[in-house]
Amino acid sequence: MERIYLDHAATSPVHPAAAAAMAAVLTETYGNPSSIHSFGRDSRRIVDEARTVIAKTMNAGFNDVIFTGSGTEADNMAIFGTARSRKSGHIITSAIEHHAVLHACKALEKEGFDVTYLPVNKEGIVSVSDVQEALRDDTILVTIMYGNNETGAIQPIKEIGQLLAGHPALFHVDAVQAYGILPIDVAELQVDLLAVSGHKINGPKGIGALYIKTGTLLQPLLHGGEQERKRRAGTENTAAIAGMAEAAKIAENTREKRAVLYAEMKQTFIEVLTKNGASFSANGKVEQALPHVLNLFFPGTDVEAFLVNLDMAGIAASSGSACTAGSIEPSHVLTAMFGTDSEKLRSSIRFSFGLNNTKEQIEQAALKTAEIAKRLS
């Protein structure tokens, strides 16, 4: 039985070229990038070249990119760094953010910061007017994701950036799911902070990056050495940085082609389900979502049983929500979209496409999904 991986929004397979770049560093370039001898300078060159690559993918300056240990750390660095450098104030976020953002905001509430959690509509999209209404004189940070990790809903980041252009609040964007899929230009979007991750773009796990606009005041999360322009202490993970840069380069060079391919896969999946009599509907508007993410509601089914049956059929998918101690918690994203009483909270599956997927795999997976949906409903 062929195993089909349709959970690329959770993590993606490492591209062979990224793996090769990492292997070369691990075996040949082991110096500490902070050392002044030739071994250290060789490692420093790799880190600098990678920083140049990442900066170019988002039209950022070389010195504005800081490497982190993950997208979560990048989000935390932006949020806690902003809050603690200003001591007090008001923060605006949305109810559908990744937990790296939501849990950080909850922690800051306990420290005395005031946080507004904006609602979304049934398509899972934040209203720009809601952001405007929530803005206060003491608002220090607005943090809104670019593309949602569960539904793929794309947020009006450019419009929010324009709104905030005349306000002193910093604008942070969690672009982890959108990076490598949507075009990103930090100047055009008018963002101050933007977080990305390596393992979502066919790079390694354990590496991320944070764009910090020149002149932005942030308090560091980590204290130690003077790495990353004194903003992120700790010896740089040179191999992972090299792998992420290689993956980012490939992602940027193939972005438009992949966007078309994933949109076609999404449409194929929907067509096969329809043709085979499955009862389903999309959560959010398919055309307003990231091309590689498809979140579907299957009436009358249970998400845990559905995922088990998919796995037994060789298909890896996800509920898109947290799994704790063996039980799946209701999705906070779908709850924000449809309310706590919606059947969709217990009957929705996320399929996400990526590297190594073929049209034949998508057709086969959709056919098996249709069979399971009819059997369980």
Automatic annotation (TrEMBL):
Any Pfam family matching the protein: Aminotran_5
UniProt catalytic activity: (sulfur carrier)-H + L-cysteine = (sulfur carrier)-SH + L-alanine
Residue ranges of domain Aminotransferase class V in the record: 4-364
Enzyme class per UniProt: transferase
Source superkingdom: Bacteria
Keyword vocabulary terms for this entry: Iron, Iron-sulfur, Metal-binding, Pyridoxal phosphate, Transferase
This protein's name: cysteine desulfurase
Gene source species: Domibacillus iocasae
